[in-house]
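Hello Y.,

Per our agreement to keep a running log of every chain we model this quarter, I'm adding this entry. I've kept the format consistent with earlier entries: sequence first, then predicted structure.
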Amino acid sequence: FEHNYRIRAVRRNAVQGTEAWSNSISFAFEHEVFVPNVITPNGDGFNQYFRIRNIELFPQSSLKIFNRWGGSVYEARGYNNTWRGDGLESGVYFYELALNRNNVVLKGTISIVR
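Predicted structure for the entry above:
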């Protein structure tokens, strides 16, 4: 991601206000996506949801979660950190997260501990 910044200077007096803008400066940031490997949806208020850090920067992403036999247990387009493994037993599941940017697909495991 590239971020562009400019500074606006405003001078106010009794007659009129004037403003001036600085030159633009750009910074490139990675905004790393962090996928946790465990959730504990047990009602204690901690780690209740599969929260993927910075996923909101990838609104066209798609998330698929599979059981150990390869059966799909969850799918979402534009994932928004709301999955808690409802209806699933404690255990290890597999995820595939397509960010839909630069052909990046992240794969790994997610453990549900109740």
